[in-house]
Design goal:
Oligomer: heterotetramer
Radius of gyration of chain B: 17 Å
Shape of chain A: globular
Chains: A mainly alpha (416), B mainly alpha (103), C mainly alpha (701), D mainly alpha (180)
Radius of gyration of chain A: 25 Å
Number of domains of chain B: 1
Number of helices of chain A: 14
Structural class of chain B: mainly alpha
Strand order of the largest sheet of chain A: 1-2
CATH architecture of chain B: Orthogonal Bundle
Number of strands of chain B: 0
Helix content of chain A: 55-70%
CATH class of chain B: Mainly Alpha
Largest sheet of chain A: 2 strands, antiparallel
Number of helices of chain B: 3
Structural class of chain A: mainly alpha
Shape of chain B: elongated
Strand content of chain B: under 5%
Largest interface: B-D, 77 and 92 residues
Order of helices and strands of chain B: HHH
Distance between the termini of chain A: 111 Å
Largest sheet of chain B: none
C-alpha cells in the first residue's frame, strides 16, 4: 500500500533521473508545477458541472444533462458540459471597452490566476507531496500571495471604466481586507500550538494518534473547532462565495468587477476564483482537518493524496450547498460580522489557545470545560447582541418623512 | 564589486529615485510613495548588512526591518488619512497648495 | 461563631453596594433594582442572624458578649485614627430588628411604589438609608457613628423629599435636615470635647476606649463650668444629637412634617432607622451618661446622674406632649407620627429611669408595631387612592379585612392591651421603672397619663378609619378634585380595595412578630434583660418582679381601659363628619390641632432672632468691613498707578527697541518658510550631501 | 555578479523609476507595487524569507491597496492634465547629488572592502525571530503595538468626515493670511 501512497513521488523521481544532473532540480520543480497546473484546473472543470447540476437539483430542475461525447450517443449525464463551455469561452470575441485602461485591463486576470496557482503549490496534497516547500514560512507565503487577489480585483474594476465594476471592486477589496484579519488570526491559533509556519509540519503534527484509533486533528479541540468555524466563515468571504458574494452580486452590480470581461479573460477570472476557493479549502484542511491524514487509524491504508482530495471535494460540495441555501448579506451586516463578531471571537480564541497551552498538565475534562466555557460564553453574548442587527431595517427615506415644518413668521415683539 | 556593495548601490539608487520623486512630484500621494520607496531602500540596506555583515546570528537587521515595516505601515495609514483630510479641506492634493502656515 | 466580628462590615456593606449599583441603573430597570435592594437586605438579615447567634453564648462570668474589631483608618501625624466594629447584644438585637423590619418595608414598597416612575431611585435611596443605619449600629467609634448618623440624615432628606415636585415635601425634607442638624451641632461638639479629654473615640478598646473604666473615671472626676462633671456636660451635648434625631421635645417639629415622604419611608424612619438612632445613641453611650460621681451615688435602680435625669424629664414631657397633639390630628399618618414622638419619649424615659434594657426593649417592640401601623396606614392609603384624612375614610373593616386585622394588632400593641401584645409589656416596664424611680414620681404620672391618651387617640383613629359609617366620597370636594386629577371614573373603581399580596404579606408577618415579641420580656421570663446584661445562663422562669410591678400592671391596664372606653363611647355615638372632642372642648381641640403652636412659636422667636442677626451682619458688612476693604483698595490702586507710570516711561522703551530688532530678524526668517514642503526637503537633501561628504572626509583623514 | 540579482535589481529600480515618473496615479501605485515585490524577491535572495513574505503581505496586501484607495478618494483616478512636477531641475539636481555622494561613499569605502566577499548563507529560523521578538525585543514590540493602535485611531479620526463643511473657513483663513 505504501507504494500506492507514494506512487506520484516515485514517478517524479524516476522522471527526473532521465535528465542530466545540472537540470534535475529545475526539472523537478517544473514537473510539480505541471502536475499542479493539470490537476486543479481539471477539478475546476469538474466543479463547474457539478455545481451547475447540484444547484439545479436544489432548485428542482434537471440542470445540464445533454452534452456528452460529440458525434456519439453517450451523454455522460451532462458531464461533457465543461468542455463545451471551455471551447465557447476560448472562441468568443474578446471585448475591451473603448475607454478602458487596456494594459491594466489585460494584466488583471493574470494577476489573479498566477498567484492562485502559486498558493496551491504550497499545499501538502499528500505524504511527501508538496510542490513548493517553504520549510519555514509556508503559511505566510500563502497569505502573502493571497494579497495579490485584492490587487487584481482593483485592477479589473478600475481599468474597466464602469461604475458597476468599480463598485464591485471596492466592495470586494473592503470585504477581503476585512475578512483577511479573522482568517489570519484564526489560523494563527494553529501556528501558536504547533510552533511552525510550515504547512507540512502542521499536517504532520496532526497525524499523531490519539486514544488509539483516531488522529489528533486540530478540529477536535475546543479552540480548533472554534478556529475552524471562524476560518470557514472568513474563507467563504475571501473566496467571494455565498452568502458573501456581494462583490459580484448579479442583481445589484451585473457581475461586479469582471462585468467588462469576456471570452478567455472572463474564463481566467472564473478559473482564478475557483482556484482561490480550492486553495483556501486546502489550507483549511491542512490547518484543522489533518491534511492528508485519515480520520481513523484503521483507514490509514487509503493513500494520503486520496484523503486530501476527498476532503477537498467535501469542501467544494459544502460551498455549493451553502450557495444553494443561504441568501446574500447586506454590506453593513457583512462589515459588522467581520469587525464586531469575528474579530473579537478570533482574539478570544487566541487567548483560549494560550490557556490551552499552559493547562497541558491539567485534567483533560477540566481543561476541556474551561476552554469550552471561555469560548461559548462570549459567543453567546456576542451572538445575542447580533440578533438585533439582523432584523429588518427601516430606511430613513422609507419612514414617514413629512415635508419640512412650516415656520410661521413671528411678528416682531415690540415693547409697549 | 562585492555583492554587498552591489546591494548598497541598488539601495542608494532606489533611495535617490524615491527622493527625486518626493522632491519633484506635485501630487502629495506620490510624495508619500517616494517616501515609501526611500524607507524600503533603507530596509534593503539593513538586510544587506545583516546578510554580509560580521555576525548575522544576532538578527538585528531582520528585526529592524520587521519593525520598520510595521512603522511604515502606520506611517502610510496616517499619511494617507492626512492627505484625504487635506483633500477634503482644500479640494486639492497638490503639495504646493498647502502653504497656509507659511511665514 | 466569634469570627463573625471580622465580617460584620458586610452588613452595612451589602445595602451600600446595592445602593451603589442601583445608582448606576437606568430608570426602567425597576425589577432588578428592587430585587437587588431586597436581596441585599435579606442577606444582611442573614448575616445579622449569625451575629445574633454569636452573642447568645456569653462566656461564663464575663457578662455580655462584647466583640470588637479595631483597625487604623489613616495615620494623622504621630497618632492613627482608628475605626472599628463592635458586636454586643445591643448591636445584635438592633441589627436583627433593622434588617428584618427593613426587609419587610422594602418588600412592601414594591407594592406601594408600584405606580411611581422613579422606583429605581427610590430603592437606591432606601438601600443607602439602610446601609447608613446599619453602619451606625455596628460602629465602635463615635466618629464613624457620627458619619453614618449624618448619612442617615442625608438619606432621610432624599427620601422625605422624594416627591420633591411637591413644595410641601421639599420643605419638609429641608426642615428635617436642618432641625436635626441643630441637634447634631451639639453632638459634634460633644464628640470633639470627648476626643479632647480622652484622646480616643473608640467605645471599647481593651480598656483604652472612651466608654471604659479608665476614661470614665477621668471624665467624672473633672469638673467644668458650674461645677458640672465633664462627663455630664459631654453626655448632655451628645444627648442634643439624640434629641434632634429622635424628635424629642424642643426639636420634634420635623418628625410630623416628614410624613410628606412616601409611606414606606415614614415606616422606615419611624420604626427601624432614623428615630431609633437617637435612642440607640443614648443606649450606646449609657456608660458615659450613667457614670456617677461619688457625691451623686444615690441608691436606686440606676445611677441618677444629671444627664439621665435630663433624659428622663425630656422623655416624659415629650411622651405626654406629643400624645396630646395626636388626639386632635386628622391625617392618618400624622397621628402615627405624633404617636411615634410620644413613644420615643417613652423610650427616653425608659432609658433615663431604667437603663438600656428598658428603653431598648420598648424601641424593639415599637419598631415592629410601628412599622406594622405605618405599613397598614400605607395599605389603607394605597387602597383608598391616596386619601389620608381619616374623616373621609370609614367602613374599611369590610373592604380591607387583612389590613384591618393587622392594623388592629398594631393598634392594640401601641395602646398597650394586656398580656399578648408586646407593647403592653415594654410600656409596662417603662412605667414600672419610672414608678420606682426615687427622685420624683411625676414622670410616672406623666407616663400613665400618656398611656391613657395613647389608648384614646388610637381608638379614635381605629374608629374613624375602620368602623365609622362610610363617608360619601362624591360629596367631598377635595376628594373629587383628587379623583379628577387622576382621571379615574367615579364609581366602582374608586371604592377602596384590599392591597396586593406583596403589601399584605409584610403586614401579616409584622403582626405575628408583634405578638411573638411579647414573650421575651415578661416578668415571668425576662429574657431580654438577661440577654442585654449577659446573664442568659442565670435566667430562670418564674415571677421575679417586685410588688410594684403588679401595681404598675394594674394601673396601666386601667389606663388603657379608660382611654379605649372613653374614646369609643365618645366617637361611636358622635355624629359622622364631626369630632366629638371638638364639640366638647373646641378651643383646646383647635390648639391641639395646631400642634400647640410650636412651629408658630419658633417662627415668632427663633426665625425673627435669626433674621435680626442677619440684618445686623448685613449692616456690619456694608458699613464696617467694606470701608476697611475700600481703604485697602485705594492703597493698592495708588501703588498700581505709581508702578504703571514707571513701567510706561522707563522700562518699556528699552523693551520696544529690543522688540523691533527681534521682529526684523523674524521677518527675515519667515521669508525662508514659504510653506513649500519640497523646498524644505531639497534643503534637507543638500544638507545630507554635505554631511555625508564631511563624514567620509573625516573618516579618510 | 549574480544573474538573478541583476534581473531583480533591474525590475525593482525600473518599476520604482516608473512609479515616480508616470502620469496616471493608479499606474504609479501599481508600479510601486511591482517595485515592492521586486524588493521582496531581493530579500528572498538575501536569505530573509520571513522579511520578504512580510514585506509582500504588508506592502502589497495593505499599503498598496491603501494608496490606491487614497488615489481614488482624492479623485486621482484620471491622468492629470498639465504640469505634474514642481521645480524639476532643482529637485533632480539634489537627488542626483545625494545618489552621487552615496555611491561615492559606497564604492570608496574601505570598511566595505574589508568585509569577506562571500559569506555562508545564514540560517534564518522563524523560531529564532519569534524568540527574539518575545525576548530581547519585547519592549519595542509593545511599542509597535501601541504605535499601530495610535496610528489606527489617528487615521480614523483624521479621515473621518467632518460634520460641517469647513471649505468656507479654509478660504477665509487663507485670504486672511495674505494680509501682512
Amino acid at each position: 500500500m505504501a507504494s500506492l501512497d507514494q506512487i506520484f513521488v516515485t514517478l517524479k523521481e524516476q522522471l527526473v533521473q532521465l535528465f542530466p544532473a545540472v537540470l534535475q532540480p529545475y526539472v523537478g520543480v517544473l514537473l510539480s508545477i505541471v502536475a499542479i497546473m493539470a490537476v486543479f484546473p481539471g477539478i475546476f472543470a469538474l466543479t463547474t458541472v457539478v455545481e451547475r447540476k447540484l444547484l439545479a437539483r436544489f432548485q428542482n430542475r434537471p440542470g445540464p444533462n445533454r452534452v456528452g461525447i460529440p458525434l456519439t450517443k453517450i451523454r455522460l449525464a451532462g458531464f461533457g458540459q465543461f468542455a463545451a463551455d471551455g471551447i465557447k469561452s476560448l472562441t468568443k470575441e474578446d471585448i475591451i471597452p473603448r475607454n478602458a485602461d487596456r494594459k491594466v485591463h489585460f494584466i488583471a486576470p493574470f494577476v489573479l490566476v498566477v498567484p492562485a496557482f502559486l498558493a496551491l503549490s504550497v499545499l501538502p496534497i499528500g505524504r511527501n507531496m508538496t510542490a513548493l516547500d517553504f520549510p519555514e514560512t509556508g503559511l505566510l507565503f500563502f497569505f502573502a500571495i493571497g494579497a495579490a487577489t485584492e490587487l487584481s480585483v482593483f485592477m479589473a474594476g478600475w481599468s474597466s471604466r464602469n461604475k458597476y465594476s468599480l463598485l464591485g471592486a471596492m466592495r470586494g477589496i473592503a470585504q477581503m481586507l476585512s475578512y483577511e484579519i479573522p482568517l489570519i488570526l484564526s489560523s494563527l491559533t494553529v501556528v501558536m500550538m504547533v510552533g511552525s509556519l510550515s504547512l507540512v509540519t502542521i499536517v504532520e503534527r496532526q497525524t499523531s494518534v490519539q486514544w488509539g484509533f483516531f488522529h489528533s486533528w486540530h478540529v477536535f479541540t475546543p479552540w480548533g473547532f472554534a478556529g475552524f468555524l471562524l476560518f470557514l466563515t472568513a474563507a467563504c468571504a475571501e473566496a467571494n462565495r455565498t452568502p458573501f458574494d456581494l462583490p459580484e452580486a448579479e442583481s445589484e452590480l451585473v457581475a461586479g468587477y469582471f462585468t467588462e470581461y469576456s471570452g478567455f479573460k472572463f474564463a481566467l477570472f472564473f478559473l482564478g476564483e475557483y482556484l482561490g476557493m480550492f486553495a483556501i479549502s486546502g489550507v483549511a484542511i491542512s490547518l484543522f482537518l489533518g491534511g492528508w491524514s485519515a480520520p481513523f487509524t484503521f483507514l490509514d491504508w487509503v493513500p494520503s493524496w486520496l484523503w486530501f482530495f476527498g476532503k477537498l471535494f467535501a469542501f467544494i460540495l459544502f460551498f455549493i450547498w451553502l450557495r444553494g441555501t443561504l441568501p446574500r448579506l447586506r454590506v453593513d451586516q457583512l462589515m459588522n460580522l467581520a469587525w464586531k463578531f469575528m474579530l473579537p471571537m478570533c482574539l478570544l480564541n487566541l487567548l483560549v489557545v494560550g490557556v490551552w497551552h499552559f493547562t497541558a498538565e491539567w485534567n483533560e475534562l477540566l481543561r476541556w470545560s474551561l476552554a469550552t466555557v471561555l469560548l461559548a460564553g462570549p459567543y453567546w453574548l456576542f451572538s445575542r447582541s447580533f440578533e438585533a442587527r439582523f432584523k429588518p431595517r427601516t430606511y430613513r427615506y422609507a419612514a414617514d418623512s413629512p415635508a419640512a415644518p412650516v415656520v410661521a413668521p413671528v411678528a416682531p415683539q415690540v415693547p409697549i | 564589486m562585492t555583492p554587498l556593495a552591489a546591494y548598497l548601490l541598488v539601495s542608494a539608487l532606489l533611495f535617490a529615485i524615491g527622493f527625486a520623486g518626493a522632491l519633484t512630484r506635485r501630487n502629495s500621494i506620490l510624495v508619500l510613495v517616494g517616501v515609501e520607496l526611500m524607507l524600503n531602500a533603507a530596509n534593503l540596506n539593513f538586510l544587506a548588512f545583516w546578510r554580509y555583515g560580521p555576525n548575522p546570528e544576532a538578527l538585528t537587521g531582520v528585526m529592524f526591518v520587521l519593525f520598520a515595516i510595521a512603522v511604515a505601515a502606520a506611517e502610510a495609514a496616517v499619511g494617507l488619512a492626512l492627505i484625504i483630510a487635506i483633500y477634503r479641506h482644500y479640494c486639492s492634493s497638490n503639495v504646493e497648495d498647502v502653504a497656509t502656515m507659511k511665514g | 461563631m466569634k469570627g463573625i466580628i471580622n465580617s460584620l462590615w458586610l452588613i452595612p456593606a451589602l445595602p451600600l453596594l446595592a445602593a451603589g449599583i442601583i445608582a448606576l441603573m437606568k430608570r426602567p430597570q425597576r425589577k432588578p433594582a428592587a430585587a437587588l435592594a431586597i436581596g441585599s437586605m435579606a442577606l444582611a438579615f442573614l448575616v445579622s442572624c449569625v451575629a445574633f447567634v454569636a452573642t447568645l453564648q456569653p462566656e461564663a462570668g464575663k457578662g455580655a458578649v462584647q466583640l470588637t474589631h479595631n483597625f487604623a483608618w489613616f495615620d494623622l501625624g504621630g497618632s492613627a485614627l482608628r475605626l472599628g466594629w463592635l458586636l454586643d447584644p445591643l448591636t445584635a438585637g438592633m441589627l436583627v430588628m433593622v434588617t428584618f423590619v427593613g426587609s419587610l418595608i422594602f418588600i412592601f414598597s414594591v407594592g406601594y411604589m408600584d405606580h411611581d416612575e422613579n422606583l429605581t431611585r427610590f430603592f437606591g435611596f432606601l438601600a443607602l438609608f439602610a446601609a447608613a443605619m446599619l453602619g451606625l449600629l455596628i460602629a465602635n467609634n463615635l466618629l464613624f457613628l457620627f458619619m453614618c448618623w449624618e448619612l442617615v440624615g442625608v438619606a432621610s432628606y432624599l427620601l422625605i423629599g422624594f416627591w420633591f415636585h411637591k413644595p410641601s415635601a421639599a420643605a419638609a425634607a429641608k426642615k428635617a435636615f436642618i432641625t436635626t442638624r441643630i441637634g447634631d451641632l451639639g453632638f459634634f461638639l460633644g464628640i470633639v470635647w470627648l476626643y479632647h479629654e480622652t484622646g480616643t473615640l473608640l467605645f471599647y478598646d481593651n480598656g483604652a476606649g472612651c466608654l471604659e473604666q479608665g476614661a470614665l473615671t477621668k471624665l467624672v472626676t473633672q469638673t467644668t463650668v458650674g461645677g458640672m462633671a465633664v462627663s455630664t456636660a459631654i453626655s448632655l451635648l451628645l444627648f442634643c444629637g439624640a434629641v434632634g434625631k429622635s424628635g424629642q421635645l424642643p426639636l420634634h417639629v420635623w418628625l410630623p412634617d416628614a410624613m410628606e415622604g412616601p409611606t414606606p419611608v415614614s415606616a422606615l424612619i419611624h420604626a427601624a432607622t432614623m428615630v431609633a438612632a437617637g435612642v440607640f445613641l443614648v443606649a450606646r453611650v449609657f456608660p458615659l451618661m450613667g457614670a456617677a460621681t461619688a457625691d451623686l451615688g444615690l441608691e436606686g435602680h440606676s445611677p441618677h446622674t444629671t444627664a439621665l435625669t435630663v433624659v428622663t424629664w425630656v422623655g416624659a414631657c415629650t411622651a405626654v406632649f406629643a400624645a396630646l397633639i395626636a388626639v386632635a390630628q386628622n391625617d392618618i399618618k400624622r397621628i402615627l407620627a405624633f404617636s411615634t414622638v410620644s413613644q420615643l419619649g417613652y423610650m427616653m424615659l425608659g432609658l433615663g429611669v431604667g437603663g438600656p434594657a428598658v428603653g431598648m426593649f420598648h424601641l424593639l417592640t415599637h419598631a415592629f408595631f410601628k412599622a406594622l401601623l405605618f405599613l397598614g396606614a400605607g395599605s389603607v392609603i394605597h387602597g383608598s387612592h391616596h386619601e389620608q384624612d381619616i374623616r373621609r375614610m370609614g367602613g374599611l373593616r369590610k373592604l380591607m379585612p387583612i389590613t384591618f386585622a393587622a392594623y388592629a394588632v398594631g393598634m392594640m400593641a401601641l395602646a398597650g392591651f394586656p398580656l399578648v401584645f408586646s407593647g403592653f409589656w415594654s410600656k409596662d416596664e417603662v412605667l414600672h421603672a419610672a414608678m420606682i424611680w426615687s427622685p420624683s414620681k411625676l414622670p410616672f404620672l406623666l407616663g400613665l397619663f400618656g398611656a391613657v391618651l395613647t389608648a384614646f387617640y388610637m381608638t379614635r383613629q381605629m374608629w374613624f378609619v375602620f368602623f365609622a359609617p362610610r363617608a360619601e366620597s362624591a360629596s367631598s370636594p377635595g376628594r373629587a378634585a383628587h379623583s379628577a386629577s387622576h382621571h379615574e371614573p367615579q364609581g366602582a373603581s374608586s371604592s377602596p380595595h384590599e392591597s396586593p399580596r406583596v403589601m399584605t404579606l409584610p403586614l401579616v408577618i409584622l403582626a405575628v412578630a408583634t405578638v411573638l415579641l411579647s414573650l421575651f420580656a415578661t416578668p415571668v421570663w425576662p429574657w431580654f434583660h438577661a440577654y442585654l446584661g449577659g446573664q442568659l445562663d442565670h435566667l430562670q422562669v418564674g415571677w421575679s418582679a417586685d410588688s410594684a410591678a403588679g401595681l404598675t400592671m394594674l394601673l396601666s391596664v386601667l389606663a388603657v381601659a379608660l382611654g379605649v372606653s372613653a374614646s369609643w363611647r365618645l366617637y361611636s355615638r358622635g355624629k359622622a363628619g364631626t369630632d366629638a372632642v371638638e364639640r366638647l372642648f373646641p378651643r383646646l381641640f383647635r390648639a391641639l390641632q395646631g400642634r400647640l403652636y410650636v412651629d408658630e412659636f419658633y417662627a415668632a422667636t427663633v426665625f425673627r432672632l435669626n433674621a435680626a442677626v442677619a440684618v445686623l451682619s448685613d449692616w456690619a458688612d456694608r458699613f464696617v468691613w467694606s470701608s476697611v476693604v475700600e481703604l485697602a483698595a485705594w492703597l493698592a490702586k495708588g501703588l498700581a498707578w505709581l508702578s504703571r507710570t514707571l513701567d510706561e516711561s522707563g522700562i518699556n522703551s528699552g523693551f520696544d527697541a529690543g522688540c523691533v530688532e527681534t521682529r526684523g530678524a523674524g521677518g527675515f526668517a519667515s521669508r525662508l518658510q514659504n510653506g513649500q514642503t519640497q523646498r524644505y526637503l531639497r534643503i534637507l537633501g543638500a544638507g545630507v550631501v554635505v554631511l555625508v561628504v564631511a563624514i567620509v572626509w573625516m573618516g579618510n583623514n | 555578479m549574480n544573474f538573478i540579482f541583476a534581473i531583480l535589481a533591474g525590475l525593482t529600480v525600473g518599476a520604482a523609476f516608473a512609479a515616480m515618473t508616470l502620469r496616471n496615479l493608479v499606474h504609479c501605485a501599481l508600479c510601486l507595487t511591482v517595485s515592492l515585490i521586486g524588493l521582496a524577491l531581493l530579500y528572498l535572495q538575501l536569505g530573509a524569507e520571513f522579511a520578504g513574505f512580510v514585506q509582500v503581505l504588508v506592502y502589497v496586501g495593505a499599503v498598496a491597496i491603501l494608496i490606491l484607495f487614497a488615489v481614488l478618494l482624492t479623485r486621482g483616478g484620471e491622468a492629470p492634465v498639465g504640469r505634474i512636477t514642481n521645480s524639476l531641475g532643482a529637485g533632480l539636481l539634489v537627488a542626483a547629488a545625494v545618489f552621487g555622494v552615496l555611491a561615492w561613499a559606497i564604492i570608496g569605502s574601505s570598511a566595505l572592502k574589508a568585509l569577506p566577499k562571500e559569506t555562508p548563507q545564514p540560517a534564518l529560523l522563524v523560531k529564532a525571530v519569534g524568540d527574539k521578538l518575545m525576548g530581547e525585543f519585547v519592549l519595542p514590540l509593545q511599542g509597535i503595538a501601541l504605535l499601530l493602535t495610535a496610528a489606527l485611531l489617528g487615521a480614523v479620526v483624521i479621515a473621518m468626515r467632518e460634520k460641517s463643511s469647513p471649505a468656507g473657513v479654509a478660504v477665509d483663513s487663507r485670504s486672511a493670511t495674505r494680509n501682512p
